């Protein structure tokens, strides 16, 4: 494609520059409007600058991709209601044999669940589970948060529904679900194992330290086993934690009981509970401003309290947990889809239990049916939408609460991105750059695959992985198609593998990384700040090694 006129090139670059800047840095000081509005802003500039016509803008929006994305999000909402992610939390903590065993479990569970439920969804629902389990076992959160983010990215590469860029590749390449899975699964499996090995090497000494039994018992009082496996999220909306959660209340109450200066009431049993229910956020603020740190962050605080304080906490632990669970139940019962299974309300009748059990079974059957349909080669978009509507019908009630959990902002972001990328393509700049690189990046040579992978890796971290796939996909496929049809499919799979694993390079490399970081920061009293540099130190070697060992295993069928 020839270069467009100079004016069109300049204006197209300006419009795409706004899109890129707001997609990568959504809170820039001079225009903090976020990624979704930024994508629409770039798209509108493309039309206003006449880089692309309004009709061409509409045509650039890929409806099959949006349909597939919408269907998978709705299915994820119903799976969350059917306690699928609660069972994943149970699997993480069931008969754990220490830090190394838990780290390996996090890698496997997050990888395989991401391949089926998308990496972003799994990071949303599993981050706080992992923080709680680490706290309960007196283990540092960093290894497990890195394991969750990196393994989710690697695992999501195995299927077309694992992440957004794979959705784009599957629709544009028309590679079936089965061929996609067979082509990348061996690389994904080895990549997850290698990534887990790298994590173990990095944190071997840290995970080998014997646990402080006193701290473990103290954490057990703060967070009972059922609390670890019963927290509920809304995966499709990728919503953040609210400030006044039941976990915060539990920790705040514990802090107040240990520090009389914070307790304004004389009766710590009844009046404190009432004040939390009425004005819980104020109490949490007071506990925070009082400088009280959780036991896991300060060993000196345990010494200060002494054995008497620990005994008192154990004696009062049951009432504290009872209040926190009651509050959590009252907050959750406001809507059926977020109702907690761990409730102190009157137990369901046998008929109601049977009805719920049958409904959950129906959700799992429909989901398995969707996966089987994808494997046999049915249209992916309509299969996902059909499964979503089947779940809506089986629920036999107004679907609005569930449909409101769908991340429509993500769908709008995709629409804006399609227009912005298509407009940038029409400037001729991507084609010109690709023409200069293409002779040296042929898919049928070792050097060509290495150069192509390097280009994808760098561009994915500069422009993000989905725009990279939109910019390079058709060009890489056309270059490989001149060799053979099988090489064309392999080129698409290489693009899927490298663009996905590239997300592990830095904290900004993928949305899953940012979700883990932000969810971990917002978890009060057991939160953790995963810094950019701590992720980069692990991300660079992991990304390079996993990418290299996976490339020879990618095959087209």
UniProtKB/TrEMBL annotation:
It is found in: Cell membrane. The keyword Ribosomal protein does not apply. The chain crosses the membrane at residues 7-27, 33-51, 63-82, 181-204, 363-394, 445-463, 492-516, 536-554. It comes from the Eukaryota. The keyword Kinase does not apply. Residues 293-347 are annotated as: Disordered. InterPro entries: Cit_transptr-like_dom (IPR004680). This is Citrate transporter-like domain-containing protein. Pfam families: CitMHS (PF03600). Keywords: Cell membrane, Membrane, Transmembrane, Transmembrane helix, Transport. It comes from Dendrobium thyrsiflorum (Pinecone-like raceme dendrobium). Residues 27-502 form the Citrate transporter-like domain. It is a multi-pass membrane protein. PANTHER family: TRANSPORTER ARSB-RELATED. GO terms for cellular component: plasma membrane.
């Amino acid at each position: 494609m020839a270069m467009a006129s100079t004016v069109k090139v300049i204006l197209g670059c300006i419009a795409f520059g706004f899109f890129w800047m707001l997609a990568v840095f959504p809170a820039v000081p001079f225009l903090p409007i976020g990624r979704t509005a930024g994508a629409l802003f770039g798209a509108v500039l493309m039309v206003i600058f006449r880089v692309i016509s309004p009709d061409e803008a509409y045509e650039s929006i890929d409806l099959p991709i949006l349909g597939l994305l919408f269907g998978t999000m709705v299915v994820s909402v119903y799976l969350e209601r059917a306690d699928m992610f609660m069972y994943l939390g149970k699997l993480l903590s069931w008969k754990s044999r220490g830090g190394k065993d838990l780290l390996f479990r996090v890698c496997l569970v997050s990888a395989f669940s991401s391949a089926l439920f998308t990496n972003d969804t799994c990071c949303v629902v599993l981050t706080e589970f992992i923080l709680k389990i680490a706290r309960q076992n007196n283990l540092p959160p960093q290894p497990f948060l890195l394991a969750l983010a990196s393994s989710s990215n690697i695992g999501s590469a195995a299927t077309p529904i694992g992440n957004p860029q794979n959705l784009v590749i599957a629709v544009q390449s028309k590679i079936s679900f089965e061929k996609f899975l067979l082509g990348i699964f061996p690389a994904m499996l080895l990549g997850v194992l290698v990534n887990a090995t790298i994590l173990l090497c990095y944190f071997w000494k840290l995970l080998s330290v014997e646990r402080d039994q006193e701290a473990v018992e103290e954490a057990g009082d703060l967070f009972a086993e059922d609390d670890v496996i019963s927290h509920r999220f809304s995966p499709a909306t990728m919503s953040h934690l609210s400030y006044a959660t039941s976990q915060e209340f539990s920790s705040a109450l514990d802090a107040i009981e240990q520090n009389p200066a914070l307790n304004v009431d004389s009766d710590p049993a009844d009046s404190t509970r009432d004040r939390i229910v009425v004005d819980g956020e104020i109490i949490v603020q007071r506990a925070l401003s009082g400088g009280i740190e959780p036991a896991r962050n300060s060993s000196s605080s345990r010494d200060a309290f002494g054995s008497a304080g620990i005994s008192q906490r154990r004696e009062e632990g049951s009432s504290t947990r009872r209040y926190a669970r009651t509050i959590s139940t009252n907050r959750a019962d406001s809507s059926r889809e977020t109702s907690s299974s761990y409730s102190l309300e009157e137990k369901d009748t046998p008929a109601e239990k049977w009805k719920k059990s049958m409904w959950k079974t129906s959700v799992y059957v429909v989901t398995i049916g969707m996966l089987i349909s994808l494997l046999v080669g049915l249209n992916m978009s309509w299969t996902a939408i059909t499964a979503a509507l089947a779940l809506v019908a089986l629920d036999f009630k107004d679907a609005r609460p569930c449909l409101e959990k769908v991340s429509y902002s993500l769908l709008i972001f995709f629409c804006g991105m399609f227009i912005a990328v298509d407009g940038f393509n029409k400037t001729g700049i991507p084609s010109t750059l690709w023409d200069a690189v293409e002779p040296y990046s042929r898919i049928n040579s070792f050097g060509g695959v290495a150069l192509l992978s390097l280009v994808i890796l760098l561009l994915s971290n500069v422009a993000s992985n989905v725009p990279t796939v939109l910019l390079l996909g058709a060009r890489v496929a056309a270059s490989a198609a001149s060799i053979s049809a099988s090489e064309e499919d392999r080129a698409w799979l290489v693009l899927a593998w490298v663009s996905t694993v590239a997300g592990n390079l830095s904290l900004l490399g993928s949305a899953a990384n940012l979700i883990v970081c932000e969810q971990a920061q917002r978890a009060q009293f057991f939160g953790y700040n995963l810094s950019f540099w701590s992720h980069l130190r692990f991300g660079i070697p992991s990304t390079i090694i996993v990418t290299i060992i996976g490339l020879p295993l990618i095959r087209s069928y």
